[in-house]
Write a structure and sequence with these properties.
single chain, alpha+beta, Thiol Ester Dehydrase, Chain A, 6-stranded antiparallel sheet, 3-stranded mixed sheet, 5 helices, 22% helix
Amino acid sequence: MDVRESGTLRTTIDGLPELVGRTFGPSSWFRVTQDDVDAYAQVSRDHNPIHVDPEAAARSPFGRTVAHGYLTLSLVVPLMAEVFEVTDMGTGMNYGLDRLRFPAPVPVGSTIRLRGEVLGTVPLAAGQQVTVRVTFEVEGSAKPACVADLLLRYYA
């Protein structure tokens, strides 16, 4: 059984199949700063000037620095935790993802949030695998920044 509070979808492992077709979110807005982008560049070793050099990025098609696509995707963990919860989970893990796309950039200084939809489930020996489509919205943009189908595994 699921309960919604402020856009949050809560369920048990056994309740996951009942959620197919259900949506959740949105999460709170998250402002992406140049400090966030610079820190991600250090960890990922992706120092492309469109991310870390405001002067060079000003001459790019984006007109300013933009976040790495994978930085945006990495925010799935904190933002999804706000709006989707498996209450009896002992262990949860990423199994993979399908159909990852970055339709629009995330300009530094903009705010993003996440919405999701449960697409399907597969029973496992001691849990469930769930496919969730996540969409990252950029405030003021008609196009999403990132869309991906996450494969998540939940065990009691």
